[in-house]
Design a protein that fits this description.
The structure is a single chain. By secondary structure, the chain is an all-alpha fold. Helix content is 66%, strand content 0%. The protein has helices at 15-33, 35-43, 54-82, 85-105, 115-123. Helix 1 (15-33) runs antiparallel to helix 5 (115-123) and helix 2 packs across helix 3 (54-82). The longest helix is centred in the middle third of the chain and has 29 residues, at 54-82. The relative contact order is 0.15.
């Protein structure tokens, strides 16, 4: 049986969008819940503003993780569109393992939201060469 555009299996493009939404929620949460430490960092002039303050350090890591997650999401969407299942699976292992570690260390956190993306990336198959 010959595969045509109408009979070819379709793969929904959602993983990158999902992770971008998680990154947006993460950043919004940071702005709402950590507004005082963020304001303090800005008032200190940003450069070397963290110093020895553990709350400031945690805030910086929290905000930067949201930015890194957004960058990852920006890279995943074109991979989904191209059908590069091999690269998605490799990234999927990383997303899944980091998410599981985050859930184990902090069960009451947003790490749960990345689990569906990691699992979905692992389920992607490499594109079949057309002849």
């Amino acid at each position: 049986m010959q595969t045509t555009a109408l009979t070819a299996p379709t793969t929904r493009i959602w993983i990158g969008h999902w992770l971008m939404a998680v990154a947006a929620l993460h950043t919004l949460f940071a702005l709402l819940a950590l507004h005082q430490p963020i304001l303090s960092l800005v008032q200190r002039g940003l450069f070397d503003a963290v110093g020895q303050d553990p709350m400031a350090a945690a805030t910086v890591w929290f905000v930067l993780f949201g930015a890194l997650l957004a960058l990852l999401a920006l890279a995943i969407t074109p991979l989904e569109r191209s059908g590069d299942g091999l690269t998605l699976r490799r990234l999927g292992w990383g997303v899944l393992l980091l998410s599981v570690l985050g859930v184990v260390l902090m069960p009451v956190s947003g790490f749960w939201l990345a689990l569906p993306a990691g699992i979905a990336m692992l389920r992607r198959r490499p594109a079949v060469a057309r002849t």
